[in-house]
Amino acid sequence: MKILGISLGTKNGNNDTMCRVALEAAKEKGAEIEFIHLFDWDIRPCTGCVACSRALVTGKGMVCSQKDDFKALYEKMVDADGVLFVDPIFESGCTGLFHTLMDRMGPGHDTGLMLGCCEKMKEQGKEPLDMKYFKQKAISFVGIGGSDWAVRVETDHAMLAMSPGWKVVDNDYFSWSKDVIMQDDKVERMREIARNLVDAAQDIADRHLMIFSPENDKLDYWKGKKGACPHCHGNNFYIHPGTDVAECELCGLKGKLVLDGDVMTFKFDPATEFHAHDILSGKKLHGEDIFENEGRLMGLSKDEEFKARKAHYTAVAEPIPSPSKAN
Questions:
Q1: Whole-number average pLDDT of the chain
Q2: I want to staple 15 with a disulfide (CB 3.0 to 4.6 A). Which of 7, 38, 271, 294 is the partner?
Q3: What are the structural domain ranges in the chain?
Q4: What are phi and psi of 170, to 5 degrees?
Q5: What does the pLDDT read at residue 327?
Q6: Residue range 2-225 in CATH 3.10.450.50
Q7: Nearest of 44, 106, 89 to residue 70 by alpha carbon
Q8: Is the C-alpha dihedral spanning 202, 205, 207, 213 positive or negative?
Q9: InterPro entries given for it (predicted)?
């Protein structure tokens, strides 16, 4: 049993410390532990070049145009049984570095697209992607903030688990935590989060659970507080203007927010649950859409009207050169 802790804070700051608190508790439960201070790694922003999605759509495999440490980080996560992220809270949400990780996970590591790629590779007589990329995984998130601006961070963090379809066990945040190491209740909560992660990871390993296992979509390892969305436990919703339709910003299900006694809850038609972004049925639907759209875009590169429009707007304005790169 291997638990990987990843901290996105300052060197030996609160995030590193609380991540190590959790790792110590995981080790006490018999887990092998590894720790990454992510600022030590070279993680570059996604450029939106779509090389990853096009490579999957065409059966070329997993490709990224960026040559940095992200592939090594992804392999570390894949090889672990459970992953814990501890991230500072910036302006109520996650850090820019965490957003970069979300972007880099994106379509290139979406298991729905990856399964479609495997089918393409088989059709082309190639060996499909390694099945290790489809192993289910337990993942937890903790945001640590210095004030009470924190309520967006849960959704930001849980989005990272969407592309691979990993099971979120805990997703918590600590407000007013400049001195968190001295707050015994939060230290104990970190230890509890670690124990929950080990237990979930062990159960997943014992079941040999894969993303495409028949029972995968129905298994819920959630140990946090019950969220308004009964499917993903999300608490952030987009209200479509001029309607009473609410959309869970995490799993993407649409329904209505209703007052059930004194509690606001999210209600959706159970017949639509298969659309949820975090389960294989929803990921397959999303993958099919990506395959169709990428195929259409690749065809456009030969279209004369498309090329003329691109040329016209490219000529409208030249980008300003980078001052730091001018010399």
A1: 95
A2: 7
A3: 2-225
A4: -135, 145
A5: 65
A6: no
A7: 44
A8: positive
A9: Flavoprotein-like_sf, FMN_Rdtase-like_dom, ISF_SsuE-like
